[in-house]
Structures are given as structure tokens and as C-alpha cells.
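Q: Give me the 3D complex with adenosine-5'-triphosphate.
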Amino acid sequence: MDYADMLLLRFGEFTLKGKNRARFEKTVLRHVKEMTKPYPKVVLTKEFGRIYVELNGEPAVDLVEALKNVFGIASVSPVKVAKSDLEDIVAVSRQFLEIIAPAPGTTFKVNARRVWKGFPYGSMEMNKLVSTPLLQGYSGLTVDVKSPQLELRVEIRQGHTYIFCENITGVGGFPLGTNGKAMLLLSGGIDSPVAGWSSMRRGLEVECVHFYSYPYTSELARQKVVDLTRVLSRYAGVIKLHLVPFTEVQTSFTGIGQDNLIITLMRRAMLRITTQLAEREGALAIVTGESLGQVASQTLPSMNVIGRATDLPLLRPLVMMDKSDIVELSKNIGTYELSILPYEDCCTLFVPKSPTTNPNLRIVDKIEATLPSYSALLDAAIEATETVLITPYGDEKPREVVSAQAGLQEEWF
Ligand code: ATP
Ligand code: MG
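A: Here is the predicted complex, encoded as C-alpha cells.
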């Protein structure tokens, strides 16, 4: 696609949403601007239902890779630009064919569309006027108007004509942040980063909350979460990460003689703290990476008892997904290699031999009510929470393995 002079970005499903449309399109444009910052020669123009990205020599391949991941973009076409003048249109179409060099026998059609009514030839006429000289020059092409392998689209507008044949599928979804804000419970595992990405794709702005139990969990485990957030920030531009010291809260649960309930108690404490952070930050939901039945704390009775610790809606984007599909997604979004690094999570450290799959709400409530200074412990954890802004090109130094696995990352920004 290095032939391209320009990329044509088309908006996705949200265009259906009447009066929100202008706001949504503006949000996508802002996101595209953010993603094209490292390419100073790029010029952006927004039109009804689409964005034009003039490349001016910037690399098409890299920009397509970055921009097809902007939420709200349905498709991307690399475009060659001609003057809106018959001779130039034919000449540029010919160049285009020479560059993409279709194999002999390729079936082909020209699909012209006259958007600018001042152009002297109609769409049907243009199909002929462009395809005839191309077919003469390329004996290998045969015409198939129903389902050609190569469809050369010629869009005639005032001033310029756009010639393209590729339609690369974009990530779609809703523009970033247009559906409000949620707090994402981010562990170092495979699932929660995927849950975060899925939420962002639905138009949620996400702030990450991570609980760590230093010195039981290492500095590396914490850095891993910073690195994961950085990968997520590629899709958002910037993400807030709240790092909550959880050691005191966690150790308050040990020694009460109910080891099989420790995970339940820990999860509820996480939700309580996150609810307060959500209030402070103006978020209206909590997102987790839970998937039904995956582990003891993710059975329906467990989810029920854990979920009652918050009044906020608990969003579980992965709840019905198979692990293999989650893994596939995490590979696609670039978090998998980080997620499988073997650093301990605060929860795995204190995992009892047989965590309950069926906790009793009354007992759990009672334990929490009788824990000495339980709410003071939670408040202290919030008080000591550290908040960091993470960007794709931020200050926190990613460890070697990150830059090695994500050559991608370097290319994108
Ligand atoms: P993940 O792969 O996201 O860690 P998991 O299948 O390992 O998920 P659990 O470890 O039981 O499941 O965690 C369930 C959910 O609880 C996670 O998806 C995450 O949203 C949240 N969570 C777990 N540990 C932490 C933590 N240390 N900090 C913040 N959230 C956490
Ligand atoms: Mg986990």
C-alpha cells in the first residue's frame, strides 16, 4: 500500500446515533490526531462520514496499522489521488494497476462514482472510459462485473478524484470516552487487559486500578502492570493508573480462621476501595476480567457475594467468553506476552488450598462487620494510593522484554 497518497478513514456504526453524531465524529478526529502526532507531515481533513489523511511522504503501512485501531473507524482505504480530469484519472489508474500488478487472469471491474455533478461524464460512462484503456494495456485482466477479484473504485469529487481498491477493516466500536468512564480492575493476568480494551472499544474511558502487596509482591509485578497499562494507552493516548497498596488490608484477613473465604474478602475489599476511587474520579461503573466458571471466585455464587460489595454496575466484558478467544484477543491487542510473565499477583500469594466456590453472604458480612477497624484500613489504602498518568511514549522505562516483544510499539509512536 506504499503507493498511497492518502488514507480514507470511514466512520462506523455510531453514525446511526442522530444528534450525537457530530460529537462522536469530533472525538474520532481528536483520537486520529493523537495517533498521527509522530508523523508531522500528515494533514487531516474531516468530511461528512469520513476523514482524509494526506500522507505527504509519511509511511502508509505504519499509519494504516495505527489508524485502523482507532475506535469508531470502520474501514481504511489507501488511496491514490488524481485531478478530476478524465486524462489524469486514466493515467493515475494505469499507474495504480502497474503498482499493484494483478496476476494474469485476475477478474476486474471499475466502479466509478460521480459525486461532483459538475464533472462532464456520468458514473456509468466513467466505468467504460476508465476500464477500456486499462484492459487494453493489461491483457491479463478479464472483466467480471458481479464479483470481481479486483474492484477499482474511482470517486470523482470537485478538485480531486480518489482511486482505491483496498478496504481494510477497522476496529469499529464507539469513539473513545463517548459512553462515559469506568474503573478497570487491572491485575497482571491475561483477562483484565482484554476486558479493558473491550470496554474502551465500547466508548468507555477507562482508569486502571491495581492492588499490590509489597513486599510480598515484587517491584517487577508492579512494573508489569505499568507496562500493561502502557500497551492499553496505545489505544487511548493516555490512561490514569491508580496503584493501591493492599498489604495491610490483605493481611487483616489472614488469621481469622476462614481461609477459604480469603479470596472473597479480598475481592470485596478491592471493590469497596475502587467504588470510592470511582466516586472521586467521576466513574460510573467497574470493569473486571472475570469469566464465568474460570476459577473458584468466578462461579455464580462467588460473583453474587463479591458483587454485592458495590452499588456501581459491575461490567464483565469477558463473562461468557472462552479462554482461547480471550487469549487470541490479548495477542491481537499486544498484551499477551506481558501477561504471561511469571510475576506473582497479590491474590495468588494468599490463595488458600481450597477457596470456596459457594461463599455465604451472611457469614462474609459478619466477618467484615467484626474486623477491627476494617473501614479505616480501606481508607488508609485509598489515602496511600499513587496515581500515575501513562502514555505510549511516557517516562516510566519499559523493561527490555517490552521493547523486544513490541517492536510494534516503536513503530506506532
Ligand atoms: P486476570 O487474568 O485478569 O488476572 P483471572 O482469570 O486471573 O483474571 P482472577 O485473578 O481471579 O482472575 O481475577 C479476577 C478479576 O479481578 C481480574 O480480571 C481483575 O479484574 C481483578 N483483579 C484480580 N487481581 C487484581 C489486582 N491485583 N488488582 C486489580 N484487580 C485485580
Ligand atoms: Mg489473575
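A quick observation: The CA atoms of residues 270 and 284 lie 16 Å apart.
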